[in-house]
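Per reviewer request, we include the raw input and output of the structure prediction for the construct analysed in the revised manuscript.
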Amino acid sequence: MTQADPADPFGTAALRDGTLLAWRSSPTRLREDTATESDLVRAGYRDRVLTELAQNAADAATRAGITGAMRVWLGDDGLHVANTGSPLDGPGVQALTALRASAKTGGVGRFGVGFTAVLAVSDDIGIRSRTGSIRFSAERTRAVLREHDLTPPRSGVPVLRLAWPTAEPPVSGFDTEIVLRLRPDVDARALLDGFRAEAAELLLELPALGSITIGDDELTRTRTDLGGGVHEIVVGEHRWWEGEGPHARWLVPVTAAGEITPLGDDVLRAPTRSDEELSLPVLVVADVPMQPDRRRLLPGAPLDRIAEGYARFAAALPADQRIALVPVPGFARSEADGLLREAVLAELRTHPWLPAAAGGDDLVPERATALDGLTDELAEALADVVPGLVAPALCGPRYASLLAAVDVHRIGPARVAELLAGLDRDPQWWRRLYDALEPLVVDAVVAEELASIPVPLSDGRLVTGPRTTVLGADLGVDGPLVLPWVRLVHPDAAHPLLARLGAGTVTAVDLLSDPALFAAVEDVDPDDDEAAAELADTVLRLAGHVPGGSLPRDLGALLLPDVDGELVPADELLLPDAPLADVLVDESPFGTVDSKVIDRYGVDALRAVGVGWGFTVLRAELPTGPDHDLPDEGQWWETVDTDPDTLVAVRDLDLVDETRWARALTLLAADPDTADALADREGYTAWWLRTYAVLDGQPLGRLRAPDDTTFEGLLDPCPHPDADRLRACLASPVVDSTALAALLLDRLADPDRDPAPAVVAAAHGALAAAYASGVLDVAALDLPDAVRSIAGTVVDAADALVLDRPWLAAVVPAERIVMGTTATAGALAELLDLPLASDTVSAEPTGPGRATEWSREPQAVLAAATTGVPLPRGPLTVHDRLVVSCSGAVTGEREVAWWVDRSGTTHCTPAGFAAAVASGGAGS
């Protein structure tokens, strides 16, 4: 072996001689080398100075088996680029000067031409290494050409074909150093800034490099194993998660909080940047055949294998971050992008990586299902109903396009309703499902999609769709109910969502007021104890939670067992020791309910369906006639001018023993429900008691309240201790019926009665007012032969006169006068068939007097002022003594205090002014 020259360890002299010989032998070869080098600089390796030098540094580190370091700085003599790793060797020098050949058998730069990138900034390049150093120089190349009578091409000279040995060693700490003496037109600072921008990505692309220092700025690359085949790469302030397949590495940026920020706009790295644009969410560093300049793929390059293992990388990431690795649907940026996107999507579609709901095993997307609006609660409920449910966090509209890209099947509420059909689950499960579904129902469209969702009923059935069902509202019942007449939702499944989907809402009163229930009650066979007991159980459990008196009387037909075990309608039964039993006739139709029924359902439930304790109250909304099975109801309706909005009536009053009314009234007054009915004078109950209830031998309607003295002496006071509560059931202080009018007329003619004159006048006034208003049926009145005078005496009707003029009282004896008020005298005379005093008595003054005016008489003015009435009008004659001559029913002369003659003139004595003024004079 020839010993190497220490001054020229790489034999550059021989290499130069060989190259010069070739150029002299073929001048075109010189031009070709010049053109080739120029083309590489201007096209394939433009803007790739740092990239190509970094690739060489990475190869050197790989060959040396170390993690390489690279340093770039500006010195007085140019740009310096140093690296650690295998130093320069002979084959390397030969490759650098050969232009078309490479000594590399592996690594990044396989074509031996990447180093030409340095010519973009320098024509004078030095390579210093521990094994020897060389230098390339355009200036020296031109000189050599001239020495050998070779004409340099006009376009320049090939700089990297001729190398000269140098003695400069590399900077301390590095194995190789490249010195680029920059051309004057190169901005060194801008060049260094550009290198800083490239450094971070180069550390990602070239894992053999551990650090790159640009000037004073050092970037280091750290790689941490996160498990599952994922590594975290940190370069400066940036971090990536890295996954690795057989033919590629994928890196996705992440924040410090561990949140992926997908790229979407990048280029293929092979391993450094190419010109193949990509739209994948990750940075792709692939082992794929490239053209010599490593900017474009070789035709037919196998891109599909780049995606191998991509789904495994996605599956190793946190579940909530994986979806970020799906390429966003859109147009491909290049042919390579289109092929690679499809390869990645195919890999994702067919491998398990998609997070499953409820934390299950990862899903294969093409066999997975996404439900719009899925929540954790709904996912849990549907876990064994809808197979392959995707995690709820991915089911929103944000990820819809990404899931569609990997062929995830998407369903809506309608499909969920279909899958639920016929499902056998307990009511609590259905309620949890409804609760989880409720947030999905945001409009009428979704509500319609869920219209066929199954609903469990209280009787154990499962029906389709809420619209035919009803929800119980505060039923107060524990456990399910058997309600064959209605589709009641099981209480453990009841949820507001069902109401939004069309279910009705019912109260216990609604359920117990359903005509279908009444039909069921009527249809129960009295001989079928089991059917009767089942229906009674349902009704009584509900009835215990309804207001008293609110249920229809139809439920009184509900069959219940009595003390003898016989089935009897509820309204024909009484509770044991019911106070009502003590006031009813001995032959009343009521039996006693079985005590076991009381123990099980309680007194309130039994009373609600009609089992008696005290009197029961009937309530009927908007009644239209006497069809409520109340005694004498038709008679009462004849007294009603307009139909009441609500009929409130006490039942079974006709069954009270006449000798027990005192206790019955006490019972009625003590119960708040019946007491309210007693207080309504116009209502049925008060009317019936006034008409038929007897106390001390008299109907209540003939008795008065003890504190009501309107008809004192004519009507007896009610002796019952609850008389005040019975006021509406007693006689009215006004004549409001023909019956009361007849009673008062009889009592006024009864000589055994001793009413005060004021009571007599009030009674006559009330009778006249009732007659005038049309309240009385006069044809039904039987007038007595005697009447009561104002003197309190009973006088024959033939001798009585109705006083209609106040001055006539001075000449007609009080024993003959019948009066109420002068205003109603005409009506009273017609009612009693008596003459008016003014029609039967006439009189005129017998002596002259002094004609004057009311306003001129001091006594008249004084009387008006003290009584608060206006002065009368009309003619006035004053007499010292006034005597009138009477004719008609009264005859003879009578001395009077004042009088009004036929002409309307008022005659008055000094003593008569007060009476005349108070009566209004002739105007009265």
